[in-house]
Design goal:
The complex is a heterodimer of chains A (about 210) and B (about 800).
Chain A: E1 4-9, H1 18-26, E2 52-61, E3 64-73, H2 81-85, E4 91-93, E5 99-101, H3 111-115, H4 138-142, H5 148-152, E6 158-162, H6 163-179, E7 186-188, E8 198-202
Parallel strand pairs in A: 1-8
Antiparallel strand pairs in A: 1-6, 2-3, 4-5, 7-8
Chain B: E1 13-17, H1 21-24, H2 28-37, E2 41-46, E3 58-61, H3 67-84, H4 91-97, E4 121-122, E5 125-126, H5 153-161, H6 166-173, H7 177-188, E6 197-201, H8 203-206, H9 211-224, E7 235-237, H10 244-249, E8 256-257, E9 260-261, H11 270-277, H12 293-305, H13 331-339, E10 345-349, H14 353-356, H15 360-368, E11 372-377, E12 400-405, E13 414-417, E14 422-426, H16 439-457, H17 463-466, H18 478-486, E15 488-489, E16 494-495, E17 508-509, E18 519-520, E19 523-524, E20 546-547, E21 575-578, E22 581-584, E23 647-648, E24 662-667, H19 683-688, E25 693-697, H20 698-703, E26 711-715, E27 720-728, E28 734-736, E29 739-741, E30 743-747, E31 768-769, E32 781-787
Parallel strand pairs in B: 1-2, 1-6, 2-3, 6-7, 10-11, 11-12, 24-30, 25-27
Antiparallel strand pairs in B: 4-5, 8-9, 13-14, 14-20, 15-16, 15-17, 18-19, 21-22, 23-31, 24-32, 26-27, 26-32, 28-29
Helix pairs in contact in B: 3-6, 3-7, 3-9, 13-15
Classes of the chains: A alpha+beta (about 210), B alpha/beta (about 800).
Chain lengths: ~210, ~800
Amino acid sequence: MAQMAILYDATRCISCRACQVACKQWNDLEGETTSNWGSHENPRDLSLNTWCKIEMREIKRDNRVDWLFNLRSCFHCTDAYCKDACPVEAIYHTAQGFVIIDHNKCIGCGLCVKKCPFSVMQRRKAKGAVPQKCNACIFRLAEGETPACVKSCPAQAMVFGKRDDLIKDGRERVQRLREGGNQSACLYGEREHGGLHVLQVLSNAPEVYGLII
Amino acid sequence: MTQPWTDAANSDCILVIGANPASNHPVAFEYINEAKKKGAKLIVIDPRISETASKADLFAPLRSGTDIALLGGIIKYVLNDIEKYPDNYNLTYLKEYTNAPFLVNPDFKGPADLEGLFSGYTEDGYDRSSWQFQTDAAGNIKIDKSMSDPECVFQLLKKHFSRYNPEVVENITGTPKEIFLEICRTYSATGQKGKAGLIIFSMGGTQHTHGCQNVSSYNILQLLLGNLGISGGGLNALRGIGTVGGSVDMGLYPGVFPGCPQPLDIDTSLEKYLERVVPVAKDSKSLNWLNNMSKYFISLLKAWYGKAAQKDNMFGYHYLPKINVNEDYTMIAMAEAMKAGVIKGLLCWGQNWAVSGPNANAICEAMDNLEWMVIDEIFHTETTDFWHRPGVNPAEINTEVFLLPALNGLEKEGSVSSSHRWLQWRWKIVDGPQEARSELWIINKIAAKLKQLYAQEGGPSCESITNLAWDYGDTPDPHQVAKEVNGYDLTTGKLADDFTKLKNDGTTSCGLWFYSGQYTEKGNMMARRDPTPNPLNAAVYHNWGYCWPLGRNIIYNRASVDLNGIPWDKEHPVIWWKNGEWIGDVPDGPAPPMAEGGYKPFIMKPDGVAKIFTNGLADGPFPEHYEPWESPVENQLSRQQNTPLIKVYRPEEWCDSEQYPIICTMYRIPSGWNSGAMARNLPFLIELQPEAFVEMSEELADSIGIANGDRVIVENKRGSVNMVAMVTKRFMPFIIAGKRVHQVGIPWHWGHTGLSTGDTANNLSSFTCDVNMMQPEQKAFLVKVRKA
C-alpha cells in the first residue's frame, strides 16, 4: 500500500477555517468557549476539542506587511517521537503512514505528549487519560474518502494523495513561486523527522512560522 | 456577475476592489488560485490587508470612499497609453462596441470646467439635455470613428480625467504613487487582444453616496481594455447574500416589477406606460432587445391576473399600484415613514435590518412606532426582539409583534440564484421543527385570506387583490410557482420554452421573463447537475442548473469576437462563428456576425453599444471624485465637496472631522454571516470569533493608549459601540493631502441576541444615500475612538 499524505499550500490558504470546523464536525468535537484576544485566530492552540487549526502571523519587513497562514495539526511524522516514547506500543503507523493512538492499549502515562516536538498531543490531566490528536480520518480513508479537512477546503489549498506525488507537486509549486519572485518559498516536510505525512508549501522559511527544522 | 466563477481561472489579471472574496465567497478562491497557478496576477485594493489581500501579488491601500480617484488615475494612464501604443489595445472593440466615438451635445461641460459639477445642474437634479448625443437629420447618433473630434466621448473622457494624475491620486486616496503606477502597468496589460482582466467588486464599492459612479468607473476601465464579454474578463459584482440575486431579479425593489419597470402615476394607460418604457432604436444594427418589453409585461399581467387580464381591460393594468416618481419608497424612507406614523404595519420576511440596516438605532426607533409587525424567522434576532433591546422599556413600546417560525433553506424546496446567474434547485433534506413553515406557505395563507376578506367586504382598489389568479391551494407547491415564473403558452397549456416565445396578445403568461426556460416541458432545468463543460470553453456549463438568460454563461459575448465572428482570443474563445453558425456559449442573439449583417453586441442597450458616457445616471455621465458625506479632508479635486445630488435624510446627524477625526468602514469575516442571525447561534462559528471587534492600526492604537485586546468605545452622533480592539499591522495610516488620517474597520455581524452578542456596528452609519439606487453610505463615515 502506498504512503499517503496531505499537502497544505499556505500560499493558497485563505484562512476560512473550514478545515478547523470540518474536523470538529466529523470527529464530534465541541466548539470551545473562546474570547477575542485581539486576533482572528481562535482557539489559541490545539486542545482536546481542537485537533486542527489555522495559525496567523503578521510579519512586517521594510515597508511590506505579510499576513501568513499555516496549518497546525499533527504532522504524522515518519520518525514519530510519540511512538518511540510510548512504553506500551500503543502508537503505530498505518500502512499509509499515519500515526494513530490505539485507545485500548494506551495507559494514559502522558510521555508522548511531552516528546512531541510540535506539541500537538493534547491530554486531560487525569490518570489514564488518553491523548487526543488528528487521526487522519482513518475511517474516512478506509471508505475511499479524503480527510474531512481536505474535503472541506473551498480554495483547494489542501490535497490528499500519494506522498511521492505530493512531494513532486509541492516542489513544482515552490519552483513556480520562486520563479514568480519569492525566493523564500519552500516545501516543509519532505525530510523532517524522516519525512512528514502532512507537507506544507510555505511562502517564508519554516522558522517564520514557528516550525522547527 | 457577467461571468461564472469558473471563468476566473481564465483570467490573466484579477483586480479585486471593495470586496473580500477570501472571506465572503471562499469558493471563488478555487478559481482565483487556479488562475494564479497559470501565472495570473492578483491585485487587491482595500483600506487594509484583508484575507484576499494576503494572497495578492500587488496590494494597494485605499482610503474608503476614494475609488473614483484611483480608477480615474488608471483610466488616465490607459488613455495616454492607448494614444502612445495603440497596437497594445483593441481599438476596434472601443470604436465598434462602446459609445467612445459618439458625439455629445456641444453644450456639455464637465467638472474640469465647472468646479466639480456637470452642465445642467439645478437644485432639483441635473437637466440632462446637454448630456445627449448629437444626431443627424434622420435621428441617428453622430459618430466619429477616428475618436479625435473634441466633442466625442473618447476626447471628453480624456479631458475629464486629465486632472487625475498620480500625485493627485496619491493625495486623495493615500495609495503610494509607486504602487498606483504598478497597478496601472500591470492591469493595462490586459488591454491586449488575447489578454483578459477581471474586476471583482462588492459592497465596498457600492455602499457609498457615489456608489453607482464607482461601478461606472470600473466599467469604463474594462471597456477601454476590451475586457467585457471575453473569457477571463468581466465585471463581477459579488452578491452579499444567497437570496439577494433572486430578490433583485423578482423585482423586490421600489419602482421595479419582475423584469419590468413599475408603472408611474403619469402612465395613465397601458399604452402610455409602454410608450414610456419601451426603448426605440434608431440604429438598424442595434437589436435593442428591450423593445420586446410589451411581451414581458403583458405576460407578467397574465401570470398575475389570469382570466381577469384581457385585451379589453388592458390586461388588468388598472389593478396595478402606480408610484409617483418623486416619492421615495426605499428602505430609509420607509423607516422614516414608520417613525412619522405614516406606515403603521410591517411584514418583515426574515430580514434583520436592526443589525444590517444603516443607523440601526433609528431603524429600531422606527419599529417602536409601528402598530404591528409580522416577522418570520428561524432564530430570535435583533429585529424580532427590537421591542426589548437593551436600553428600552418594553412597556413603552406599543408595537404588536407576531413572530412566525420559519423553515430554513435545508428544510424546504426551492431555487437559489447565484452571483453568476445560475438558478440551482435545492431539495428538502430534513424536516423543520414543530410548526415552522416556509415563507411560501405563510404568504400563500395571507394572500388567500386577504382575497377572501376583500371579496366579502370590498375596499379601495380591492380588485388588485380579488382578481389575482391565486390558486396554490392550502399547501403551495414551489414547483407550481417555478412553472408560473417560467411561463405558459396559454393556448396549449404547455410550459413556455423560453422568453423568445412570449407574446403581447395575452396568449402567454410568465412571472419573470428572463427566468423563462428554468422549468419547461423537458422538466426542471434548475435541478440538472451535469458537470460536462462546453467543449469550446471549459468554464461554461449549460447543463448544471439553469443559467439565465437562456443558458448564456458569459454575457455580452458578441464583444468577444471581431466583426467577422472570430474570437479576439482564440485560446479562450466564448463563441465562434464557424460554417455559418455559432459554436460555444449561447450567443447574445443568434444573428450572424456584424460583417454578415448581424448586430452590435450590447443588445440590452437601445444603441447596442456599451456606455462609457453614462448619460442615464442621475448624477453625471462620467464618474467624478467627491468625498464621502463625512470626510476628514476637503475635496482635493474641486470645490464640490460631496456628490451634488447626495441624498441626506438627517442633516443634523452629520459628523464633523474636528470632533470625529477617524474614518470608519465596515466589513465581514468568514465566521460571521451577515446579521449573525444564524452564525451567532452556532458554537463552531462562535468559537472562531466570539466577540465583536474593531480593527485599527498600531499607530492609532498607540496614539490613544490602546493595547491589542483592550476594549474601546467607537462613537459618533448616531450611536456608539463598545468592542475589543484588534490592533494590527494590516491597517496603516493614510497620508491625505499631507495630513495623517486614520481609518478603522468594524465587522457588522453583531447584535444583542443569540449566543454571541455584541454591539451593532451599524449604530454608527447614517441615513445618507446614493441618488441613483438609494444604497446607504455604510462604507465610509466618521467616528471618534477612545479607551473604554
